[in-house]
Amino acid sequence: MIDHLTGDQWQQFERQGYLRLGRLLNDADLFKLQQRVEDIMMGRADVNYDRMLMQLDEGKEDTRRSLPQSLGHKGATLNYRKILHMELDSEYLAYIRRPLFQAICARAYGPATAIACYRTMFFNKPATGGTPLNWHQDRWDWLDRDPVITIWTALDAATRANGCVRVARGGHKQPLDPPFPGCTMPQDEEILARLPDTHVDYLEAEPGEAILLHTHLPHASGINTTGKPRRGLSVVYMDAATSSARDLPFTILFGSGA
């Protein structure tokens, strides 16, 4: 299992906006995280639900009709679309603080920089459903600087059939306006016209596999047409000195104050 990136790997990440890190979770650790998030969804976990932002999945074609996201448990069901603040759970906190992720952040932000998580979010596309995600970049105008590191981990197999993430390779080099999540982008066939140096890649992944993403990399996903859920974990790592106009609290993961 790798604990750092080579120079060639980092250059590949900078060139295409993503890099496959391989399978980082063995069967036992993967099952532990799968079971843990099921316990959280079903209300069985010893976590502070009052601090967790949770959103049920409505499964609509138009993402603007997604159900509201707010703090607190919404009922015992596996049909959650997203759960934010997964770092509040000890099992997930241990995973996102792995030495490899610390080494990646040190490479991106500097070895002496303390690192916080902007968000640690569970994403879910329930069986035969799930909410599609429009093309967008992850940028937030209420932060005084842009995070650049996202690590996405597949908790189930991610395939085209179950709505895996697709990206516009190289598109991170061309930040688009407006600078906040949800900026609608063209459909696949129009992306190359708007971002001429990009190509659409489908990030199919095995359970336990992790992928390093630049936060500016345009991405989207479809619905799940299979009979099994497609679950994943997305963590945005940022300079802990980042300030927010919304006065949001951030958990420091590495360095001073961790």
The dominant shape is globular
Helix share bin: 10-25%
Counted up, domains total: 1
Low-confidence stretches: 182-186
The first-level CATH class name: Mainly Beta
**N→C terminal distance:** 24 Å
Q: Which sequence of SSEs, written as H and E, runs from N to C? A: HEHEEEHHEEEEHEEEEE
Number of beta-strand segments: 13
| Helix segment tally | 5
The computed structural class is alpha+beta
- CATH architecture descriptor name: Sandwich
What's the CATH H-level homologous superfamily?
q2cbj1_9rhob like domain
Please outline the major beta sheet.
9 strands, antiparallel
Q: From the alpha-carbon coordinates, what is the Rg to the nearest angstrom?
A: 17 Å
As a percent range, the share of strand residues is 25-35%
Task: Compute the average pLDDT.
Answer: 89
- Write down the CATH topology: Jelly Rolls
Describe the protein in words.
The chain has 258 residues and is an alpha+beta fold. 20% of the residues lie in helices and 27% in strands. Strands 1, 2, 3, 4, 5, 7, 10, 12 and 13 form a 9-stranded antiparallel sheet that branches. It starts with 6 loop residues before the first helix and ends with a strand.
Looking at this protein, list some descriptive labels.
258 residues; alpha+beta; Jelly Rolls; nine-stranded antiparallel β-sheet; 5 helices; 13 strands
